[in-house]
Structure to design on (780 residues):
DNA sequence: TATGAATGAGGCTTCATTCAT
DNA sequence: TATGAATGAAGCCTCATTCAT
C-alpha cells in the first residue's frame, strides 16, 4: 500500500493530508475539526481531500489504522527481539513506548473511538490485540506463560499496556516516565510469566 | 445538587431525560443523537432539556458521571466486602461486573470520551482510578500487595479491569462471561498479591 | 423596601418593571433583553409581567411613551415659561435638556424605534412633534416666527433638537454640554425668530 | 474589498443578496426577516449568504453602510456643485433628496439603527456627519457661515436634514414634497448663512 | 392576583459534500 | 486530477408566552 500509494501520490499530498488530519483531530477532536481546516493545513483544496478519501470518517479511520499499525508492528518486533519469554515482554514494552514517544503529540487521536472510527469494517484496537493474542498463545504453548483463556488474557494484557500508557502520558519528565515502564514490565511478568 | 434537583423534580423528568439520553447516546453515539430525539423519548419538550442541563454536552457528561459513580461505588463496596486482600480483589471484581451487567445495554456510553465528555472540569475515569489508588495504597501499607509506584499500579490495574470488561462485553452467554471474570481475578491476584 | 413592600403595592410593581425595562432595553437593546431578565431585575415573576403588559412589545412601547411624554411636557412647560418668543425658545431648550439629563442613562431607549415600538397605534416622536407644531403655529400667528409650512417647520425644528441632543450626549463634561445647548438656542432663533 | 469582492463575483450574487436584504429588511424589519427568506429572494442558497457575509448582522450593517455612502456622496457632490455658499446649500439639499427619492422604498432600513447596526466598528450617521462637518468648517473659514462649535453645528444641520426627510417621506405627491425641500433650504440658509 | 416550570416553534448557523471548470 | 464556490439539510438552542397551582 505504501509503495502503491506513493506511486499514485508523487506530490506527497496524501501524506500532507494525513499529517494535517493527525494534528487537527488530535488537538481539536473529530467533530471539532472541519474538512476545510484540514485542507488548509495540508495546503490542498477541499476537493482534493475527496479524491484521496471517500469521506471525513474514512480519513480518521485511516489515521487510526496507521497509528494502530505502528503499535502492532512495535509489539511484534519488540517481542521478536527477545530471547527468553521475559525478555520478549520487556522488549515489547520498550518498543511500544518508543512508538508512543514518537506519536506522543497526536496520541489523543487514538482515543477517538466509538463515536467515530468504530464501524463494521474496522474495530479499533483489534490489530494490536491480534498480535498480543498470537504472542500469548505461542508463549503458552511453549510453556512460558500461565495458561488462561487466550482472548481474556490478551484483552487484559492489552488493558495493562493502555493503562500504563495513560499514566505515562501524564508523567512529567523522562525519569518519571521510565518508572511507569519499569512497573509495567514487572507486573506483566508477574501476571503472565511462569516460574 | 443532585438531591436538591430531585426534590424539585417530583415528576422524575430529570430521571426520564437521563434514561432517554443513556439509551440514545449508547445506541447512536453522541453526534448521532439529537436533542429533539432525547426530548421525544423522555416525553418532555426540547426546552425542558435546557432547564435541566445547560447544553447537550453537559447532559452527556452527567450521564458519564453517573455511570462512573456506579463503578466507583461498586469498586469501593466490593473491596470493603472482603476479609483478606485476595478476597477483597475478588469481591471488587464481582461487584464491578454486577454493575457492568446492570448497565450492559448502555455500556458504549462509557467509551464516549475524549471527543465529548472530557474537559477541564471532568476527567473520565478519574473517579474509579482514585478509588483504586486508595485501595492499592492501603493494601501495600498492610503488606498485602507488592509495592509499586501507586499511580502506575492503579492505572495498570484499572486497565486490566477495562480490558476484561471489553472482552466480557463481547462474550456470548453468562458462562463465557464468567470465564473472563475468573481470569481477571487470577491475573489481578498474581500481579498484585504477595505470597 | 423590596419584596414585602412591593407585594403591598401593585403600582410599585409596575414601576419596578418599568425601571428594569428601561435599564435593560437601554443597555442591551430590545432583542438583547429577555422577559426573564426584566422579571429578575424587577424582583417579580415572569408571569407577573404578563399581568401588567400584554406582551414584550407593549412594555417597550409604554416605556417609550413615558419618555416621550417627559420630553413633550418639558417642551410645553419650557415654552410656556418664556415671555417673548425668543425667551420661549430658550426656556424650551433648557427644559428639554434638563429632561435629557434626567434620563441620560436610558437615552438609547429612545432610539429603539422602527423595528420595535413603531406601529399603527403609536408613532414615536409624534407627541413631541405635535407640541412643537402647536407652538410653531401659535408663534407664527403672533407674528413672532417666520411663516413656513407648519409640518415641515415642526419636523425640522424637531430634527434640530434631536441632532443637538445626540451631540450633547457624547460631550465630555457639563461645560462642553452647555456649549451644545447654547449653539442650539442661537440656531433655533436664527432659523425661526423674526427680526 | 468591495471592489475586489465585485471582481470575484461576476454573477452579481452579492448584489442580488444586497437587493434582497434591502427590500426585506426595509419592509419587515430586521427581526422580522429570516436569512432563509433573503436567500430565497436573492435566488441563492442559505450557505451562500455566509460566504458573502459573516452573519445576519453584518449583512444589515453593509446595507446600512451602502445607503449612508449614497447620502454622504450626495452631500459632497451637491455641495461641490454650487458656486456661492447659498447655492452649495441648495445643491446639497437637492442632491440629498434625489438620493432619497432613489432609495425611498428602502428608506426604513436607514432607521434600523441602535438595536441592530450600531457597534464599535460602525456608528450609523457618522459618515454623513463627517462630510457636513467638513463643509461647515470650510464655509466658516471662508466667512460664508456663522461661526459655531463645528460638531454641534454639524449635528444640528444633520438633524434638520433628517427631520425634513421624515416629513418629506410622508408627504403625498411630488408637489408637496418639493415644499418640504424648499422650506429646508430656507431654514438652512437662515440658520447658517451669513448676511 | 402571582408564580415560574414547561413549552415548542423557529431562527441562525455550520459544514460535509458536490461538480463545473 | 485539482480546485473551491456553492449547496442545503439539519441541529442546537432561545425565549416569548402559557397555565396549573
Amino acid at each position: 500500500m505504501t509503495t502503491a500509494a506513493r506511486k499514485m501520490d508523487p506530490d506527497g499530498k496524501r501524506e500532507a493530508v494525513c499529517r494535517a488530519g493527525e494534528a487537527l483531530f488530535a488537538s481539536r477532536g473529530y467533530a471539532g475539526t472541519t474538512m476545510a481546516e484540514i485542507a488548509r493545513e495540508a495546503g490542498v483544496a477541499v476537493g482534493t481531500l475527496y479524491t484521496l478519501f471517500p469521506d471525513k470518517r474514512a480519513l480518521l479511520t485511516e489515521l487510526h489504522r496507521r497509528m494502530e499499525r505502528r503499535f502492532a508492528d512495535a509489539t511484534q518486533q519488540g517481542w521478536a527481539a527477545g530471547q527468553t519469554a521475559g525478555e520478549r515482554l520487556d522488549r515489547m514494552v520498550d518498543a511500544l513506548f518508543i512508538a508512543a514517544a514518537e506519536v506522543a503529540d497526536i496520541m489523543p487521536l487514538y482515543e477517538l473511538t466509538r463515536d467515530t472510527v468504530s464501524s463494521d469494517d474496522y474495530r479499533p484496537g483489534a490489530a494490536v490485540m491480534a498480535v498480543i493474542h498470537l504472542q500469548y498463545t505461542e508463549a503458552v504453548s511453549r510453556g512460558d506463560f500461565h495458561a488462561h483463556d487466550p482472548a481474556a488474557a490478551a484483552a487484559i494484557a492489552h488493558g495493562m499496556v493502555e493503562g500504563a500508557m495513560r499514566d505515562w502520558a501524564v508523567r512529567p519528565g523522562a525519569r518519571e516516565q521510565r518508572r511507569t515502564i519499569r512497573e509495567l514490565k514487572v507486573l506483566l511478568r508477574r501476571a503472565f510469566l511462569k516460574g
Q: What stands out?
A: Chain A has a mean pLDDT of 92.
